[in-house]
Amino acid sequence: MAGELSLETVFPRLAGKNQVRWYDFDWKYTDFSPAATGEAVRLYFYESERELAGVARPAISDAYREMAERFSYFPQYRIPFLLYNSHFEFESTQAFYISEQVLGVTSTQDLTMALPYWGEHDRFIEVMRHELAHQFTIQKIYSVAGAADAGCNPLQLMPLWFIEGIAQYYALPDITPEVRAVLADTAVHRGEKRDRDEMELPGFFDEGPYSFERIYLVGHAEAQYLEERYGKGTIQAVLDNAHRLC
């Protein structure tokens, strides 16, 4: 692959810091343009995963082109994509603070994406698409806000369930059985006294509770509802008008 240089250190300035750096990664990269329009992806990898990078590259290209069509937008900034060979190595990154529960991450500041490939290809594709949806969302909102001279960052004014929910909506072909089970359970038992850890069905615009179920699962269902209730393209209309939040 072309362009084999050392990776520049990136610090998205997220809270916390890593425990121990287990690996000294000898980063290489390859630049590729999935579409004739839009900025390229810079895929970082290390020698032991060169073959893996060859597997990931076409999957990223396919997802990029699909997102560009669905968002009606092409990225204006190059996408740095850090690929790891395992979650254990992913946790050792110096670019982000990573816990065991995190499967992928996208910086809102320098647009760096990072995720591991742990041998489960379908799951990798799902997480990669989720993070790429974040990438398109962030870049589109920044472009809209910049063009309108909005004077603020609209992304910071959007609820977390909306940001994560639309990423799930674009990452998956449909609402998963897990989402349907959570919604059915909370709806059936609405109003009952339940264990403290069990989620109650929130109001549509409630930002909390900040749990996985509320943010990712219910957020996904709400994004799907917006598209079905108000028409295909509703989510993109919200992003197109994000500057009005300022």
Q: What do these coordinates show?
A:
By secondary structure, the chain is of the alpha/beta class. It is built from 7 helices and 5 strands, in the order E-E-H-E-H-E-E-H-H-H-H-H. Strands 1-2-3-5-4 form a 5-stranded mixed sheet. The termini are far apart. The model is unreliable at 1-22 (pLDDT under 50).
Task: Please describe the structure with a list of short key phrases separated by commas or semicolons.
10% strand, alpha/beta, five-stranded mixed sheet, 246 residues, disordered N terminus, single chain
- SSE string, helix = H, strand = E? EEHEHEEHHHHH
Adjacency order of strands in the biggest sheet: 1-2-3-5-4
Quaternary state of this entry equals single chain
Major sheet attributes: 5 strands, mixed
Beta content: 5-15%
Total of helices:
7
Instruction: Name the average pLDDT.
Output: 82
Rounded to an integer, what's the Rg over CA atoms? 19 Å
Using the alpha-carbon principal axes, give the shape: globular
What class do helices, strands and sheet pairing give? alpha/beta
Quick take:
A hairpin with an 8-residue loop joins β1 and β2 (41-46).
Give the secondary structure arrangement, pairings included.
Elements: E1 27-32, E2 41-46, H1 50-71, E3 79-84, H2 87-90, E4 105-106, E5 113-116, H3 121-147, H4 160-171, H5 177-188, H6 212-230, H7 234-240
Parallel strand pairs: 2-3, 3-5
Antiparallel strand pairs: 1-2, 4-5
